[in-house]
């Protein structure tokens, strides 16, 4: 028997714990080409919200009663695929489940290394890859340019800023609260940090922190944050839209809306959205570079781990209020 | 003595006739390197509104009491520059004035040709060049892609659509009223036309007219029109922002705002604004191509000419209600 969280009701606005239901199920034995895995860590990812409203997004919507999906790392208990053996560590997208039967072709074997296995869900997972391609392929900051990052203490934002810094950019982060801001400055080497909770006028705060204008804005938030940044962009600035957390839980008619569009003309701005899976063929190469950066200490990351599968919905709801600090994970099983 | 329109009060929202004052002035004689010109046509351009609110935009704001600026074409009456002689036709930016004294280096001599001189303010002027670079440099439609154009019966929009058509694109225009829509279909060869006044749901109308999705959206309007188009974009669609007429007269807090930003991620969209003057070094080359297109009948244009300098403010105010049909000009002097 194995426990799993399923979607209990479609989420129209911000998520609540009651949107999920914990079920106990009997898993089938693995078929040919399948694996039975035991979950070690499951990720709790704000981007998942876009699939929980019952309407199509860049991934098909999750149906009611279906197990919550998301990246997870686990240990193979039983293998019916020649490439895997019991004891192997694998990463997949089986979600908030204690155990799962998964197709071997849907998982990636974790390379042995000096990193905790949970890092496969953060710095070496989709957040790290999103930061990598967002900065190096889309934003492409030049040395001396100012790079602004929103949700800067999050998994994508913190890595984006460090990668931009390695390109020689001046890096400014927007985060919530003095603790996160201090971490950006003292641990990650950001040049400036803006505590949006302490700033009644975010646009003015960005302008003060970026006196030469923002060359690249890597935005994970959207909404009012995006609108505040647009007037602060440098001529020919680029906005890379890697996430729009502010919009995920809000129906269009109630969104703040981007009103500073005339700056696209006056400042010749470019805004581009992307989905990191489009770069899947280059994941291995990027991941190798990320591993190198973590090994030599030039890339740092932070995890927010809560104990037990039970914690997942509460942690998920909290993400939209900034209660986490670092990549949000639940520890589901002991290593 | 010469008459000119000056800015009587800053325009915070939509323009009214009373925002301008007609003055009679005595012009100084031209100094060394200057010309005295008599205006034949003055352009009435919605984009000018961005300079009339007393705040900086991509051009410095016009001060109270200053003559209204804008493209004009005229005849040289007196020259103190060796490159010009009385009788030459020149294009400059001296605005809504019967006569002007201008620096010879601020004007361009009109090449003799088979076109009416007024065309220098439209198809061979900034609107034509905006369409040219907007489609060929930014939008770059591929054969078979659908190009959507807003304000499609306007000077920029009508040329953009025709240029996109020449690239092999399928072209859909948004315009106000059945007369303009018929012109797009019957005279310019657009593949479809959407009368936004007859469509309660613009997004649905765009979707019907662009079943394969919009590859390139050349937007002259912004606001609700931009928001309606975003969900209809094809994967990796490009939005070229060449004008935002819907936003010019509206303070940010009262703008509709772009709310469909999540489509930037889901559809990997790119949005880019531009100012055509950035391509000034290539104007002559583009203008030669535009002249060729008009000569061989493959590019058509339409002018909305009203008689007399007096008509300019009323025509300007009407632009924001779509009362013009074609490039708006006033005829100031007889050829």
Into how many domains do the coordinates of chain A divide? 2
Report the average pLDDT across residues of chain A. Answer: 94
CATH architectural name of the largest domain in chain A: Alpha-Beta Complex
Kindly report the oligomeric state of this protein. Answer: homodimer
**Distance N terminus to C terminus of chain A?**
20 Å
In CATH's first tier, which class of the largest domain in chain A applies? Alpha Beta
Helix content of chain A: 10-25%
The largest pleated sheet of chain A is described as: 7 strands, mixed
Number of strands of chain A: 15
Cα shape of chain A: globular
Given as residue ranges, the uncertain stretches of chain A (5+ residues, pLDDT < 50) are none
DSSP summary: helix tally of chain A: 9
Largest interface chains and counts:
A-B, 37 and 37 residues
The secondary-structure element order of chain A is EEEEEEEHEHEHEHEHEHHEHEHE
Structural class, from secondary structure content of chain A? alpha/beta
Keywords (chains A, B): Oxidoreductase
Protein name (chains A, B): NADP-dependent oxidoreductase
Pfam families (chains A, B): ADH_N_2, ADH_zinc_N
InterPro entries (chains A, B): ADH-like_C (IPR013149), ADH_N_2 (IPR041694), ER (IPR020843), GroES-like_sf (IPR011032), MDR_fam (IPR045010), NAD(P)-bd_dom_sf (IPR036291)
